[in-house]
Amino acid sequence: MTGRVALVTGSSSGIGAATARLLAARGMRVVVNYLHSEAAAHEVVAGIEAAGGQAIAVQADVRDPAAVDALVERVRQTWGGIDVLVHNALTPYAIKPFRDMTWEELGGKLDDEMRAAFVVTKAVLPAMTEQHWGRVIFLGTGLSRRPRADMIALGTAKAALTQFGRYVAQELGPQGITVNVVEPGPVAETRISHVLDDQQTRRQVAATPVGRLALPADVAQAVAFYASEDSGFMTGTTAAVNGGMDMF
């Protein structure tokens, strides 16, 4: 991994921050992308640098092609092309049952999810194609396979992202670029952990063979594997990081 450049979208906190720290610890130069949380992003960078790693924080709305192009150009001028894309940024979504949901809420989430994945993947392809090597990892969710009450917007949008990943993997394989998806189950210590109340959390833990919910670091380990040389013959796959809650 040493010397590779990794862009981690939405990496000012939670899974993204844990992934940025781990990739940096393994020798990658990391781009910590954020939308609003500037102070938190710079804190992640400072932590990486204090540990001897290399990182920069770059603001960009990953749904905006011009903003993403500017980000990629900033990275190119600093370190060269992006070798690894970890698309983790989470766009807002409604938490409510289908009967109460508007098309703007469901369709808007689908549009945001796919637009962001489309834009960031397109932006990193030229450098990856030129060097005939690249890693693309999308962060999905177990909700795309296992429905949970009120989570139809997120689950549907992430299911679309997972299928998008498979199609892109099929197309980009001959260019030496792998595309894989990491689908966590419930993850503690993130900004959206509040979606589960204490009773729901206890039920989820009871349904998990390893006896606890995932932590951001657990998810980061799976992402780091896909970002490495070790995963070179794996593409179009989905890794379930859920402690055995859902086996498929």
Automatic annotation (TrEMBL):
Record's protein name: 3-oxoacyl-[acyl-carrier-protein] reductase MabA
Domain of life according to the entry: Bacteria
InterPro entries membership: NAD(P)-bd_dom_sf (IPR036291), SDR (IPR050259), SDR_fam (IPR002347)
Reactions accelerated catalytically: a (3R)-hydroxyacyl-[ACP] + NADP(+) = a 3-oxoacyl-[ACP] + NADPH + H(+)
UniProt keyword annotations, A-Z: Cell wall, Secreted
UniProt record similarity statement: Belongs to the short-chain dehydrogenases/reductases (SDR) family.
Lineage, broadest ranks: Bacteria, Bacillati, Actinomycetota, Actinomycetes, Mycobacteriales
Organism: Fodinicola feengrottensis
Location of the protein in the cell: Secreted, Cell wall
SUPFAM superfamilies: NAD(P)-binding Rossmann-fold domains
Signal sequence region: none
A family per Pfam: adh_short_C2
Keyword Secreted appears in the UniProt entry: yes
